[in-house]
Amino acid sequence: MAAVRVLYASAHHSTQEIADRIGERLRLRGHAVEIQALREPSDGQWRSAGDVLVLGSAIHDGAWLPAAEAFVRNNTDRFGSRTTWMFSVGMTAALPGPLRLLAEHAVQPRIAALVDIVRPRDHRRFSGVIRRDHFDRKGALLFRLLGCRYGDHRDWTAIDAWADGIVQELDVSRSGEPDGGPEGGL
Ligand SMILES: Cc1cc2nc3c(=O)[nH]c(=O)nc-3n(C[C@H](O)[C@H](O)[C@H](O)COP(=O)(O)O)c2cc1C
Protein backbone atom coordinates (compact mmCIF):
# COMPACT_ATOMS: atom_id res chain seq x y z
CA MET A 1 0.00 0.00 0.00
CA ALA A 2 1.37 3.43 -0.89
CA ALA A 3 0.54 6.70 0.87
CA VAL A 4 -0.80 8.92 -1.90
CA ARG A 5 -1.50 12.65 -1.68
CA VAL A 6 -3.76 14.09 -4.34
CA LEU A 7 -3.30 17.87 -4.39
CA TYR A 8 -5.37 20.01 -6.72
CA ALA A 9 -6.36 23.58 -7.51
CA SER A 10 -9.80 24.20 -8.93
CA ALA A 11 -11.77 27.38 -9.59
CA HIS A 12 -15.17 25.91 -10.52
CA HIS A 13 -15.05 22.35 -9.12
CA SER A 14 -14.48 20.22 -12.21
CA THR A 15 -10.80 19.67 -11.36
CA GLN A 16 -11.85 18.95 -7.79
CA GLU A 17 -14.23 16.24 -8.99
CA ILE A 18 -11.53 14.76 -11.22
CA ALA A 19 -9.10 14.73 -8.26
CA ASP A 20 -11.77 13.05 -6.10
CA ARG A 21 -12.38 10.43 -8.76
CA ILE A 22 -8.68 9.64 -9.17
CA GLY A 23 -8.21 9.50 -5.40
CA GLU A 24 -11.22 7.24 -4.92
CA ARG A 25 -9.98 4.91 -7.65
CA LEU A 26 -6.58 4.58 -5.95
CA ARG A 27 -8.29 4.07 -2.59
CA LEU A 28 -10.41 1.26 -4.01
CA ARG A 29 -7.19 -0.48 -5.06
CA GLY A 30 -5.96 -0.44 -1.47
CA HIS A 31 -3.81 2.72 -1.31
CA ALA A 32 -4.02 5.22 1.55
CA VAL A 33 -5.20 8.37 -0.17
CA GLU A 34 -5.44 11.93 1.14
CA ILE A 35 -7.05 14.50 -1.14
CA GLN A 36 -6.39 18.16 -0.49
CA ALA A 37 -7.29 21.43 -2.21
CA LEU A 38 -4.64 24.05 -2.88
CA ARG A 39 -6.44 27.37 -2.45
CA GLU A 40 -3.72 29.78 -1.32
CA PRO A 41 -0.09 29.98 -2.44
CA SER A 42 0.89 28.88 1.09
CA ASP A 43 -1.30 25.71 0.94
CA GLY A 44 0.02 22.16 0.67
CA GLN A 45 2.94 21.81 3.04
CA TRP A 46 5.59 19.44 1.82
CA ARG A 47 5.78 16.21 3.79
CA SER A 48 9.10 14.51 4.46
CA ALA A 49 7.54 11.02 4.53
CA GLY A 50 7.71 9.14 1.26
CA ASP A 51 4.37 10.03 -0.28
CA VAL A 52 3.35 9.53 -3.84
CA LEU A 53 1.98 12.78 -5.22
CA VAL A 54 -0.75 13.32 -7.78
CA LEU A 55 -0.78 17.01 -8.54
CA GLY A 56 -3.40 18.73 -10.68
CA SER A 57 -4.80 22.11 -11.60
CA ALA A 58 -7.33 23.83 -13.75
CA ILE A 59 -5.76 25.88 -16.53
CA HIS A 60 -6.51 29.59 -16.72
CA ASP A 61 -4.93 31.67 -19.46
CA GLY A 62 -2.37 29.01 -20.28
CA ALA A 63 -1.18 28.56 -16.70
CA TRP A 64 -1.94 26.52 -13.58
CA LEU A 65 -3.95 28.33 -10.92
CA PRO A 66 -1.66 30.39 -8.63
CA ALA A 67 -1.85 28.06 -5.60
CA ALA A 68 -0.80 25.01 -7.65
CA GLU A 69 1.95 26.89 -9.46
CA ALA A 70 3.21 28.21 -6.10
CA PHE A 71 3.25 24.69 -4.64
CA VAL A 72 5.57 23.56 -7.43
CA ARG A 73 7.77 26.65 -7.28
CA ASN A 74 8.04 26.54 -3.47
CA ASN A 75 9.28 22.96 -3.61
CA THR A 76 11.49 22.95 -6.70
CA ASP A 77 14.35 20.99 -5.16
CA ARG A 78 12.15 18.35 -3.57
CA PHE A 79 10.48 16.62 -6.50
CA GLY A 80 13.51 14.61 -7.54
CA SER A 81 13.04 12.08 -4.74
CA ARG A 82 9.28 11.88 -5.09
CA THR A 83 7.09 9.76 -7.35
CA THR A 84 4.73 12.27 -8.92
CA TRP A 85 2.00 12.37 -11.52
CA MET A 86 0.56 15.62 -12.90
CA PHE A 87 -2.71 16.48 -14.61
CA SER A 88 -4.05 19.70 -16.09
CA VAL A 89 -7.69 20.45 -16.74
CA GLY A 90 -8.60 22.76 -19.61
CA MET A 91 -11.19 23.14 -22.31
CA THR A 92 -9.62 21.47 -25.35
CA ALA A 93 -12.73 19.36 -25.97
CA ALA A 94 -14.87 22.52 -26.07
CA LEU A 95 -13.02 23.78 -29.16
CA PRO A 96 -14.18 23.14 -32.71
CA GLY A 97 -12.30 20.39 -34.65
CA PRO A 98 -9.27 22.14 -36.21
CA LEU A 99 -8.65 24.32 -33.17
CA ARG A 100 -8.97 21.27 -30.93
CA LEU A 101 -6.23 19.49 -32.87
CA LEU A 102 -3.98 22.53 -32.53
CA ALA A 103 -4.72 22.84 -28.82
CA GLU A 104 -4.06 19.16 -28.17
CA HIS A 105 -0.52 19.57 -29.46
CA ALA A 106 0.18 23.08 -28.23
CA VAL A 107 2.84 23.53 -25.58
CA GLN A 108 1.85 25.91 -22.83
CA PRO A 109 5.17 27.36 -21.67
CA ARG A 110 4.18 28.12 -18.08
CA ILE A 111 2.85 24.60 -17.57
CA ALA A 112 5.80 23.06 -19.42
CA ALA A 113 8.10 24.91 -17.00
CA LEU A 114 6.34 23.23 -14.06
CA VAL A 115 6.60 19.82 -15.73
CA ASP A 116 10.34 20.46 -16.12
CA ILE A 117 10.63 21.11 -12.40
CA VAL A 118 8.52 18.16 -11.25
CA ARG A 119 9.64 15.61 -13.86
CA PRO A 120 6.52 13.49 -13.26
CA ARG A 121 5.98 9.92 -14.35
CA ASP A 122 3.29 11.38 -16.61
CA HIS A 123 1.51 14.66 -17.25
CA ARG A 124 -1.98 14.31 -18.70
CA ARG A 125 -4.34 16.97 -19.99
CA PHE A 126 -8.07 16.47 -19.45
CA SER A 127 -11.00 18.62 -20.44
CA GLY A 128 -13.29 19.92 -17.73
CA VAL A 129 -16.53 21.85 -17.41
CA ILE A 130 -17.01 25.24 -18.98
CA ARG A 131 -20.09 27.40 -18.44
CA ARG A 132 -21.09 30.88 -19.51
CA ASP A 133 -20.94 32.22 -15.94
CA HIS A 134 -17.26 31.23 -15.65
CA PHE A 135 -16.32 34.07 -18.00
CA ASP A 136 -16.56 37.81 -17.94
CA ARG A 137 -18.17 39.45 -20.98
CA LYS A 138 -14.92 39.65 -22.96
CA GLY A 139 -14.07 36.02 -22.29
CA ALA A 140 -17.57 34.87 -23.24
CA LEU A 141 -17.42 36.85 -26.48
CA LEU A 142 -14.07 35.30 -27.43
CA PHE A 143 -15.41 31.85 -26.54
CA ARG A 144 -18.38 32.35 -28.87
CA LEU A 145 -16.26 33.82 -31.68
CA LEU A 146 -14.00 30.77 -31.56
CA GLY A 147 -17.04 28.52 -31.94
CA CYS A 148 -16.52 26.75 -28.61
CA ARG A 149 -19.18 24.70 -26.82
CA TYR A 150 -20.19 25.15 -23.21
CA GLY A 151 -20.76 21.99 -21.21
CA ASP A 152 -19.24 19.15 -19.25
CA HIS A 153 -16.46 17.80 -21.46
CA ARG A 154 -14.93 15.39 -18.97
CA ASP A 155 -14.06 11.96 -20.33
CA TRP A 156 -14.46 9.78 -17.26
CA THR A 157 -13.30 6.67 -19.13
CA ALA A 158 -9.98 8.38 -19.91
CA ILE A 159 -9.69 9.71 -16.34
CA ASP A 160 -10.35 6.24 -14.85
CA ALA A 161 -7.86 4.66 -17.26
CA TRP A 162 -5.20 7.18 -16.23
CA ALA A 163 -5.83 6.46 -12.55
CA ASP A 164 -5.61 2.73 -13.24
CA GLY A 165 -2.26 3.33 -14.96
CA ILE A 166 -0.98 4.93 -11.76
CA VAL A 167 -2.18 1.92 -9.76
CA GLN A 168 -0.38 -0.40 -12.17
CA GLU A 169 2.87 1.53 -11.91
CA LEU A 170 2.68 1.55 -8.12
CA ASP A 171 2.06 -2.19 -8.10
CA VAL A 172 5.06 -2.78 -10.40
CA SER A 173 7.34 -0.53 -8.27
CA ARG A 174 6.36 -2.34 -5.12
CA SER A 175 6.59 -5.85 -6.53
CA GLY A 176 10.28 -5.09 -7.24
CA GLU A 177 10.92 -4.58 -3.52
CA PRO A 178 12.18 -7.56 -1.48
CA ASP A 179 9.23 -7.40 0.92
CA GLY A 180 6.71 -6.19 -1.66
CA GLY A 181 7.04 -2.57 -0.59
CA PRO A 182 9.76 -0.03 0.20
CA GLU A 183 10.37 1.03 3.79
CA GLY A 184 8.80 4.41 4.45
CA GLY A 185 6.72 4.27 1.27
CA LEU A 186 7.53 5.23 -2.28
C1 LIG B 1 -10.95 32.69 -17.04
C2 LIG B 1 -10.74 31.34 -17.66
C3 LIG B 1 -9.58 31.10 -18.41
C4 LIG B 1 -9.37 29.83 -18.97
N1 LIG B 1 -8.23 29.63 -19.69
C5 LIG B 1 -8.01 28.40 -20.24
C6 LIG B 1 -6.83 28.15 -20.99
O1 LIG B 1 -5.96 28.98 -21.17
N2 LIG B 1 -6.66 26.92 -21.54
C7 LIG B 1 -7.60 25.92 -21.38
O2 LIG B 1 -7.42 24.81 -21.90
N3 LIG B 1 -8.72 26.13 -20.64
C8 LIG B 1 -8.95 27.34 -20.08
N4 LIG B 1 -10.08 27.56 -19.34
C9 LIG B 1 -11.03 26.47 -19.15
C10 LIG B 1 -10.90 25.83 -17.78
O3 LIG B 1 -9.60 25.36 -17.57
C11 LIG B 1 -11.87 24.63 -17.68
O4 LIG B 1 -13.16 25.15 -17.68
C12 LIG B 1 -11.63 23.78 -16.45
O5 LIG B 1 -12.58 22.75 -16.45
C13 LIG B 1 -11.78 24.57 -15.18
O6 LIG B 1 -11.58 23.73 -14.07
P1 LIG B 1 -12.31 24.02 -12.69
O7 LIG B 1 -13.79 23.73 -12.90
O8 LIG B 1 -11.70 23.07 -11.74
O9 LIG B 1 -12.05 25.44 -12.33
C14 LIG B 1 -10.33 28.81 -18.78
C15 LIG B 1 -11.48 29.07 -18.02
C16 LIG B 1 -11.68 30.31 -17.46
C17 LIG B 1 -12.92 30.54 -16.65
Automatic annotation (TrEMBL):
PROSITE patterns registered for this protein in UniProt: FLAVODOXIN_LIKE
Pfam families per UniProt: Flavodoxin_5
MF annotations from Gene Ontology: FMN binding
UniProt cross-references to InterPro entries, sorted A to Z: Flavodoxin/NO_synth, Flavodoxin_dom, Flavoprotein-like_sf
Superkingdom of this protein's organism: Bacteria
Domain Flavodoxin-like: 4-186
Stored Gene3D superfamilies: 3.40.50.360
Name of the protein: Flavodoxin
Organism name: Streptomyces finlayi
